[in-house]
Amino acid sequence: MGTGEGKTLVATCAIYLNALSGEGSMVVTVNDYLARRDAETMGQVYSFLGLKVGLIQAGMDTAARKAAYAADVTYVTNSELGFDYLRDNLAMNQEEVVLRPSGVLNFCVVDEGDSVLIDEARVPLIISGKTDAPVDKFE
Questions:
Q1: 58: alpha, beta or left, given left = phi > 0 and alpha = psi -120 to 50?
Q2: Rounded CA gap, 15 and 24, in Å?
Q3: Locate the SecA family profile domain: which residues (predicted)?
């Protein structure tokens, strides 16, 4: 389908049906603008159908991220999802983990897949953190 031919509308059925399992569905977009726009427009449909919609944006705190990922349908950018995954794997305790406890992705639609999976694939996600291990251990 070409640009503006209704891919977002078509994906709604699949997202809704897979969210009914209670394990959540994600819509991964290429930027914050598209995530917000689609969460606001399509979120009205999901809310009408009885589902809770979450939106992940840059700069959100841990509690807000947890709540958004716990929603039935979550809109998020590929980079935010990637960094949340990395941060969860660096977490020292369960309170710092934001993705669903099962750690399993139930269902995901990648909007603008060509951009996310091809163009953005070459952009590394690098994260670092403090450690309590002595520095001489790494020499």
A1: beta
A2: 9
A3: 1-139
Q: Which pLDDT belongs to residue 43?
A: 95
122 in Cβ contact with 81 (< 8 Å): no
Sheet order of strands, 53-55 included? 53-55, 73-77, 25-29, 108-110
- Which pair of tokens denotes residue 80? 């935010």
Mean pLDDT value of segment 79-103:
86
The domains of the chain, with CATH numbers, are 7-124 (3.40.50.300)
Residue 137 dihedral angles phi and psi, to the nearest 5°: -65, -25
Nearest to 70, CA basis, from 91, 43, 97? 97
> What pairs with residue 11 in β-bridges?
none
- CA nearest to 60, candidates 83, 40, 29: 83
- DSSP 3-state of 130: coil
Residue 138 has pLDDT above 60, yes or no: no
